[in-house]
Every structure is written in C-alpha cells, then in structure tokens.
Amino acid sequence: MMRLPPFTYLGPVSAADAVKLMADHGRAAMLVAGGTDLYPNMKRRQFEPTVLVGLRGIRELVGIRGAARSGLIIGAGTTLTATSRHGEVAHHYPALATAAGLVSTPQLRNMGTIGGNVCVDTRCNYYNQSYQWRKAVNFCMKKDGEICLVAPGSPRCWAVSSSDTAPVLWSLGATVTLRGPAGERVIPISALYRDDGIDYLAKRADEILTEIALPPADGLRSTYLKLRRRGSFDFPVLGVAVALSMDGDIVRQARIVLGAVASLPREAVEAGRLLHGRRLTAEIIDEVAGVAAKPSKPLDNTDLTHPYRKKMTRVFVSRALKRLAGLPEEGGARA
Amino acid sequence: MLVDGFHPIVEEAALHLVLFGVLAFPGSYAPPRRAGKYKGGGVGPSPCYSYSACVVEVDVDTETGEVRATEIWIAHDVGRALNPLLVEGQVEGSIYMGLGEVLMEEQVFRKGVHKIPSMLEYKSPTTLETPEIHTILVESDDPEGPFGAKEAGQGPLLPVIPAVANAVYDAVGVRIDEIPISPEKVVKALELKRHGKAPRVGPERLPLFTFPEPRVIESAFGEPAADIAERPFAS
C-alpha cells in the first residue's frame, strides 16, 4: 500500500492569508483544494512538499455568481459537482456542465474543484506510476530522471494535458484571476497554459487561481465530447470542446479546442476560422473536421493507441459540430 | 414456540446460533485421484464437466469502433445449485470477468515492466459497463459432484468471449480474432472491409513453436488411455 509522506497542513481562511503562507514557505509548499489529483501523486512521490496550504476553508473561493446575460464568475474552489449542476451553467454553457460532470467519479467530483481541474497535473503513463515502477525504467525527466521516455531524443517533456474543463473554458473564451504577492492579474485561460509537460502552467507557484470568468452567453452554443476507454471514470485521451456564437443559423465566431492530445489544450484555429460566416451543413462540417484534426498530435503515452486518438479527433469534431447543428450523428450498429 | 411440533425456521436458526455459534453444516468432499504424476496431471481428475451457453447483444459504433454489451443471457449447467443466489452471483461475476477480458484487459510490457500496472490504467468494466445479465441455472443432480453440484467458478466466463466476438461480426461484419476487441482493432477491420479486403484483425500466423510429441499416460480410473481418449495428434 502506498502511503502519504509526512507533511504539515495549513488551513488559511482567506485568499490573502493563503498567498502569504505560500510566500512564507516558498518551494517547500504546495496548494491543495480537493486533493483528488495531488494526494495520489504524493503517494507515488511525484510531489514531495513538506507544507500543504489547503484552500478548502476559504469561503470567498466557493460559489458561482452573475448571470449568463452579463457573464458568470465561478469561484475556483467550487466543486465539479456544483459546477455541473448549476442551472445557469447547465442551461447557457452546457459544454462546461458536461465536462465538469464527466471528470472521474461522483465521489471525486464532490471533492475535486474546478480550479483543481483547470490546474490538474499533466499525465503520462511513464510518469503516473509508483516510485518502484519509475525506478525500474530509470525515471523520466518530469520526476527524478534525465530524459523523456516517450520521445528519448526530445529535450522536453511530453506529458499530456488531461483536464476536461480546460479545453471547454478555452473554447468559451474564459479568463482566470491569479492572486499572488504582487497583487492580482487577469489573463485569458489560453495564456494560462504552456507547451511543456513539466512547466505546463503560466501560473507562478506562489499565485493562487481564485476565479474563472465566463463571457456573456449571448447566442452561444457549446458542447464537449470526451474519448476514454470506459464511460464510468477515466481521464480523457481526447477531448473536443466546441463553442459557436451564432447569428441565426450563421456562425459568427467559432472556437474548437482539443484536449489530451498535447501538453496543453490545443486550439484548432484554422478550423474555427473556416466556420466564420458559414451555415452548419454536413459538407462544411466534414471539411472543418478534417482541418481540425491537423493540430492533434498525440504520442504513445496514454491509454488507447495514439494513431487511433488522432483518427478519432476528426470523428469527434464532426460529431460535436453535428450535435450543435442538430444534424444526425452516424455510427450506431446493433446485434 | 412450537408450531405443529416444529420450530419456525427463523427461531430454529436463532436457536442453532445460540447453541453452536455458527449456522453451518460440516461436510467434506475429495475429488478422484490425479491421473498421473506429470505436469498438468492435476487438471484431469474433474469428476464432472459443466457446460454453458451465452447470448450477447452489442452496440458497435462504426466510426469509433467502440463496442458496448447491452444485454447478456447466460445458461450454465451447475449440477445442483446448493445456494442458488450465490451461484447466480458466481455466474454474473464470470460474465463481468469475460467482458473485461474480451473488451479491455491486456498484458502489455514495455522496457521490461508492465505498461499499465494499476487499477486505473488496467481497465476492467465497472457496474456502469456491465449490462443487464439474465442468468439461467440449468440444474441436474450430478452423481459425482458434492451434494450433486458441479461448478460455477469460472466456467461461465468461457462462452462470453466468443459470444461478444460473434456479436461484433453479426453487427458490423468484421472478425476480431484476438482479445481484447479494442476500438482501434474494430476501426481497422472496418477500414479493411471498406477497401474490399478481408475484414479481419488478429494473429497473421501460428506462433513459431514446435509442440513436443504427446506423452500418453494410463488413466487413474483403471482404463487404458487408448480406450478413453481420442488422440488427434497421434500419427
């Protein structure tokens, strides 16, 4: 049985106190909210903090305010369950409700927060293993080792962004508020991520993600599709988030963001641009799906094979767009 | 309280628990002697054999290759079902095992270690992937088995795997001759079918292995082996 290493748990009750504690303890400290990602990783010794600054007692981080007409503010400490069940989210930003509701299992969604899912550690099946297993393969550069075992010739780490909510929030044009010792800054969520499996967040270690802001949902249609082995509880090995702003049946703006095929959510910019000013017909959807699959470059470090995940990108983008267009989806056969 | 000279069953059970501490019946059973002292000799002395039949309904997604079992019927010949509820549970457990083997589980090694050595990565079905199961216990009073029973251990899992493979073939016309029947294999076979090639994915040749000459062991049951077994490999 794997056990947690010893650590000191601090429970601040305000974000300001939490920032101060992080500054005081420096590199020894890490933040923890629901703990559903951090604690298993600590058991496997992927993280070895001696101090944990818990965010669960900070009331100001919890809850959803505002309205779809003017935009929603989601506290980073809001649980995934609360996010997926929130009426305004479910009705006006259905992709987010879907994504939050597809993370892991009900128990973990009750503990896990949306801020935690946005910042979830990148994953790789050379990395998310016990210490002994990693030792047996001589460790990888993400923890304790020198090279990337997926691409040994590469100077960087290729661990996979495995958040369900991140690609959706990116497609919705969300912004995030980061609070640190120097004050607050607000950045688009697309600027929160970096293309590196180790250094995957632009958030500094002493900054706290406090809230996520969604723009007004006027004319917005959105959906999220997730590929995984089991429908019950697996990390995504491909996520497709699509958000369309519609003028009647004409697409005004389109964002297609792919999850779990790179170290960060990957926007299919060219495919989104192709949709501008167009009607959602089966022909245009087919064309756009082909273009959207181009930036999908999975490697052999998750469940299911990477050529399959690449192939499914096109299928999933096509299905997502058909769903938003109200067109029938193909593929069912029964015997 | 006696009813017509008998204790009602609930009181009888309570009384037994008070007197003996546990509600159980001791008994013993010894299988027949092993047929001979050789590797695999312990497999032989089954006093009886169970048989099962399985019908599986699946949904196959022709774009993603995903296979989902939607309903399963299983009939298993158990001899006497000593505790029918437990036996049904055993049979259902076998279905779940079979589904895991046919759709997900795989031993993959990389760099000398198991590639997926955790319960998160080594996929098995959960309750949500397990369909409605209709269990039919086919009972007989087997003269060899203990109290007339045969087995319900892992026998019923055997027909699940070919039943799923056949259901996939029936649904979309492709043969996956290898487990697990993973979505990528189904997609590959469907592509072969679209290109007019043999719609099959599986081993391309027999393993490079020469089987040794079979050793014939005389039966422990007193009959010469030649009288009780056909020897398909004998020249």
Characterise the protein shown here.
The complex is a heterodimer of chains A (335) and B (235). By secondary structure, chain A is an alpha+beta fold. Chain A has helices at residues 15-25, 38-43, 80-85, 87-92, 94-102, 106-111, 114-118, 131-136, 165-172, 269-275, 282-292, 306-325, and strands at 8-10, 29-32, 51-54, 64-67, 71-75, 175-180, 183-188, 208-214, 220-227, 238-247, 250-259, 266-267, 332-334. Helices cover 30% and strands 21% of the residues of chain A. Chain A has a five-stranded antiparallel beta sheet with strand order 4-5-8-6-7. Chain A starts with 7 loop residues before the first strand and ends with a strand. In chain A, 49% of the residues are buried. Chain B has a domain at 52-201: Aldehyde Oxidoreductase, domain 4. Chain B has five helices and seven strands. Chain B has helices at residues 9-20, 84-103, 160-172, 183-194, 225-228, and strands at residues 52-61, 67-79, 109-110, 113-114, 132-139, 175-176, 200-201. Chain B has a three-stranded mixed beta sheet. In chain B, strands 3-4 form a two-stranded antiparallel sheet. In chain B, helix 2 packs across helix 3 (160-172). The A-B interface holds A 125, 128-130, 133, 136-137, 149, 227, 229-234, 303-305, 307-308, 311-312, 315, 319, 330-335 and B 57-65, 70, 104, 111-113, 115-118, 120-121, 123, 125-129, 167-168, 170-172, 182-184, 187.
